[in-house]
């Protein structure tokens, strides 16, 4: 595998001018690109181009927008904003991922419940195109790229309320770089909206195991939908996921957890108007947890699962499915059946958005069996018109599974975009747009 690290954008420009096929990357936290075993997955000429060595810069603009240039992690951006009394609205669980990479993957996270996804927070961005030129795109300008997008847009309309559709939005200029996974150019900088910071708190609810009874879970799901302006995140961690943590970190006893992020000064209001109306969860099963402890818990779960998979030598077998609220019960029922097939599993994720990560924890001999289970889930998701990969993108690992979600409208737009913005086929040529 050929690798190259870049230390400045002029170096990136010089490399782009050589037209060598390149998979540019940042922190390599993508769960859909197997960075640890890429040999054979990329073309023999493809270079792995490291952008995380480009020194980042953060600037708080006078209007409260944040300008990010080069390699900056979400953690750094978040801390920088807090120093200015501001908050970034996107909060992916993996805080060491790059902000600009987050645009490339149309990253979301727990706060998408209250603040929608990153796509809606981008004001403008600049990318390096195939000629090595800087191109600036604006979020308030319709995308006019000389390609007929009308049928593509008509198909996309169904997914407007989803965090991410099976294919990028392509409605405004900035969409060209959002969720296109670096297949049309290299993002160099971006301006993101931020909000004034108010201290937050977390409300934890202990529930029975969802496999046995998910009526209380559904009661919370329905109740929170009317509180999207106050509840910033509504997250779920099941008892199986929590079992990977040391006992002292586990807030339940063989129980599931749903937690809500709210502003501290809105606690009374939320208690009175939302929590006190829940009929299936006892008050003694509801408690407050401070932000640091909650964050620690939240990050520990996917990391523990990742480590366990690495120890077993298996690639993650997880889902990233979002369905409409009407189909949420169907999704939970389907996951319940997947839990009965004899492979260890766990479930966690963005409960309020009907977007959950079901993870098989297979031994290597169960790899193909789990893939078959996932394929059968994706055919259901297609039937339900849900979004199969609403957060982590397609990369290389999901290409096979996304294929049935594309018709000729998407394929011809992808081809036209690649011809126009990547005529030499140099930007991540193994990505989903080459179909
Ligand atoms: C424990 C864990 C939790 C996670 N939680 C979340 C979550 O809550 N929400 C979420 O959305 N994702 C999550 N992810 C997935 C991952 O963190 C995101 O996809 C993230 O955006 C990847 O960022 P990165 O810097 O690691 O990019 P990489 O993995 O290095 O690259 C990802 C993609 O972005 C492209 N890319 C990177 N930088 C650029 C650039 N400057 N210009 C153009 N293209 C570029 C690459 O070509 C590649 O296609 C999680 C992953 C892990 C391991």
UniProtKB/TrEMBL annotation:
Q: Per UniProt, which keywords does this protein have?
A: FAD, Flavoprotein, Oxidoreductase
Pfam families under this entry? FAD-oxidase_C
Gene3D superfamilies the UniProt entry points to: 3.30.465.10, 3.30.70.2740
Alphabetized InterPro entries for the sequence: FAD-bd_oxidored_4_C, FAD-bd_PCMH-like_sf, FAD-bd_PCMH_sub2, FAD-linked_Oxase-like_C
* Limits of the FAD-binding oxidoreductase/transferase type 4 C-terminal domain: 224-427
In its keyword annotation, does this UniProt entry include Flavoprotein?
yes
Cofactor(s) for this protein?
A: FAD
Regarding protein family, the annotation reads: Belongs to the FAD-binding oxidoreductase/transferase type 4 family.
This one is known as FAD-binding oxidoreductase
């Amino acid at each position: 595998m050929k690798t190259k690290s870049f230390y400045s954008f002029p170096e990136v420009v010089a490399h782009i001018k050589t037209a060598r096929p390149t998979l540019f990357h940042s922190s390599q936290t993508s769960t859909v690109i197997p960075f640890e075993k890429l040999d054979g997955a990329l073309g023999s000429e493809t270079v792995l181009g490291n952008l995380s060595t480009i020194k980042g810069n953060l600037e708080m603009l006078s209007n409260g927008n944040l300008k990010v240039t080069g390699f900056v992690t979400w953690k750094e951006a978040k801390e920088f904003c807090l120093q200015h009394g501001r908050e970034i609205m996107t909060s992916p669980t993996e805080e060491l991922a790059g902000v600009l990479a987050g645009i490339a993957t149309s990253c979301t996270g727990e706060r998408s419940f209250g603040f929608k996804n990153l796509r809606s927070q981008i004001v403008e961005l600049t990318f390096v195109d195939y000629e090595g030129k800087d191109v600036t795109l604006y979020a308030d300008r319709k995308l006019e790229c000389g390609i007929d997008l009308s049928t593509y847009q008509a198909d996309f309309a169904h997914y407007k309320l989803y965090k991410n559709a099976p294919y990028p939005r392509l409605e405004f200029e900035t969409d060209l770089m959002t969720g296109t996974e670096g297949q049309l150019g290299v993002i160099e900088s971006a301006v993101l909206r931020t909000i004034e910071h108010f201290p937050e708190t977390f409300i934890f609810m202990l529930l029975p195991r969802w496999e046995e009874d998910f009526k209380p879970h559904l009661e919370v799901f329905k109740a929170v939908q009317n509180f999207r302006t106050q509840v910033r995140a509504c997250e779920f961690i099941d008892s199986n996921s929590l079992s990977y943590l040391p006992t002292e970190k586990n807030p339940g006893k063989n129980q599931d957890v749903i937690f809500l992020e709210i502003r501290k000064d809105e606690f009374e209001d939320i208690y009175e108007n939302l929590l006190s109306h829940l009929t299936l969860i006892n008050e003694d099963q509801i408690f407050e947890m401070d932000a640091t402890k909650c964050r620690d818990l939240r990050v520990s779960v996917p990391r523990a699962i990742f480590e366990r998979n690495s120890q077993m030598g298996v690639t993650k077998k997880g889902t990233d499915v979002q369905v409409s609220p009407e189909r949420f019960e169907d999704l939970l029922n389907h996951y319940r059946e997947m839990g009965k097939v004899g492979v260890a599993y766990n479930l966690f994720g963005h409960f309020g958005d009907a977007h959950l990560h079901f993870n098989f924890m297979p031994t290597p001999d169960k790899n193909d069996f789990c893939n078959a289970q996932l394929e059968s889930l994706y055919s259901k998701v297609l039937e339900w018109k849900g979004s199969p990969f609403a957060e982590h993108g397609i990369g290389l690992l999901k290409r096979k599974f996304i294929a049935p979600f594309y018709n000729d409208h998407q394929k011809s737009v992808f081809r036209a975009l690649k011809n126009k913005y990547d005529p030499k086929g140099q930007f991540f040529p193994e990505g989903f747009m080459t179909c």
